[in-house]
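User: Let's play a game. I give you a shape written as tokens, and you guess the letters that built it. Ready? Here's round one.
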């Protein structure tokens, strides 16, 4: 995608401490513009606002017992179902089919996914306590993001199918919330 020379020019340009020796122009500027256009959020297609109890940080989520995670997933699914009635452009044609394969004499079921396209997700954690790391999963987006995949709002939560962004904002104790917004990408 980028040549070594172009990457060196980008590194010099983005270092902030010194002026770049070579300006970003020509083919490099065109490539950057194309990448930005592909990743820039387009129209919002889904928004979900959850209490902080339904968006635990990654460490808390990983340490939950199985029954507590199942209860959390069910509560998030209820909220997603309610929000789907307010947002009519969430569907992007994702299909999930179960097929059966015979492997070494045993029947194995597997899920195949088709349709859909890449989307962008932005999560905002509004809390009185700052998060350790500012990423979608670490600040509480792991469980909601997984449930959006199950609800077919997102095709998958891998970087191939999902661009991610996260922010943290201060809110007074007791007024915290977790907001998930799903956008079409700029090239759609």
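Assistant: Ready! My guess for every position:
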């Amino acid at each position: 995608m980028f040549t070594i020379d172009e990457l060196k020019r980008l590194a010099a340009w983005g270092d902030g401490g010194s002026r770049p020796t070579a300006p970003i122009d020509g083919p490099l500027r065109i490539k950057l513009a194309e990448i930005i256009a592909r990743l820039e959020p387009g129209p919002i297609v889904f928004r979900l606002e959850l209490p902080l109890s339904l968006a635990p940080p990654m460490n808390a989520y990983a340490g939950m017992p199985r029954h507590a995670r199942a209860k959390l997933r069910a509560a998030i699914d209820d909220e997603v179902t309610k929000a789907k009635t307010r947002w009519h452009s969430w569907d992007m044609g994702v299909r999930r089919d179960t097929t059966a394969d015979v492997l070494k004499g045993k029947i194995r079921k597997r899920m195949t996914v088709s349709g859909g396209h890449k989307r962008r997700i932005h999560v905002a954690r509004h809390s009185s306590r700052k998060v350790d790391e500012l990423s979608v999963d670490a600040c509480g987006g792991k469980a909601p993001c997984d449930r959006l995949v199950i609800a077919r709002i997102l095709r998958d939560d891998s970087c191939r199918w999902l661009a991610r962004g996260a922010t943290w904002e201060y809110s007074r104790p007791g007024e915290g919330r977790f907001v998930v917004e799903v956008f079409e990408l700029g090239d759609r």
